Amino acid sequence: MRLAPFKSFGRLYILIYFLTFLQSAYSQSELPIDEDPYLDPDGVESVNKNQRFKDDQGFLIGFLYGLHTALVFSPALSLAYYKESFTLGIEVSDSDKLEFWSKQKKDWLGPSRFGGTNYFAKYFFGKNVYILGAYEKRFAQLYNRSYDRTQKPKEQDDNTFKKKVAKARFNIDAETTVGSVGIGYMNVGRLGFMSIDIIRYSFLINQRADVEVLWETWSSPEIDSYEDLQKNIESRKEDWYDTLDSPSTLLITVGLFF
């Protein structure tokens, strides 16, 4: 039952993908009217202009999913405007709003939230291939983290000490801002579009991580080892800095073009 929304979304994703590549079965250039010598050429051209599908500008709305830190559990909503060889747009993801694999995320990472906002521009070479530049904010919010260890109180010697269990619970709120450059491919059809960012290489602009300690016993007089807790927290912050500052690849966007 948990995968039912994912399966439904997947079917819609595939449907739009195929509709993207459908070509008109009755394109104006194939109609006998173009070859009829008894018709006024100017009139035919006027009809053609009114009926011809124009793919040189329009709005793009779709969903983005791929190998991206902020998108592993949550696809992004993508909104963009395309005109001739240039595209401007925004991508927004939030696992609290739309999420895949919620059970797996909870099992692997515990209670958490992932997402981000990406402002991007794409410049097309020829018809389909583009280079892109992006400004991204990625976040990870991790709740109720734990660090529990058995410690020897400092005032007791090695032969007589009684074991004490030091415990802590805390939240981590990490955010990274990166710039990205990459290359991709897009195809537009009558009903939709599909684009693939083959690679997005990111470079760090800014990063931060705030920690809220909910409660802990590491600093109690019996244990007095708060420095160990701080070292563990700093190590986790560094791990998430590296995770959020990762390059992305195979980001597929499928949606409607109008």
At a glance:
The chain is of the alpha+beta class.
Descriptive account of the structure:
The protein has one domain: Porin (Beta Barrel), CATH 2.40.160. The chain starts with a helix and ends with a strand. The chain has helices spanning about 5-20, 40-50, 100-110, 225-245; strands at about 55-65, 75-85, 85-95, 110-125, 130-145, 150, 165, 170-190, 190-215, 250-255. With about 260 residues, the protein is α+β, with helices and mostly antiparallel strands. The relative contact order is 0.17. Residues about 1-35 have low confidence and may be disordered. It has an 8-stranded antiparallel β-barrel with strand order 1-2-3-4-5-8-9-10. Strands 6-7 form a two-stranded antiparallel sheet.
Shape: elongated
Beginning-to-end CA distance, first to last residue:
34 Å
Give the number of domains: 1
The CATH architecture name reads: Beta Barrel
- Compute the number of strand runs: 10
Helix-strand pattern: HHEEEHEEEEEEHE
Poorly predicted regions are 1-33
Instruction: State the major sheet.
Output: 8 strands, antiparallel, barrel
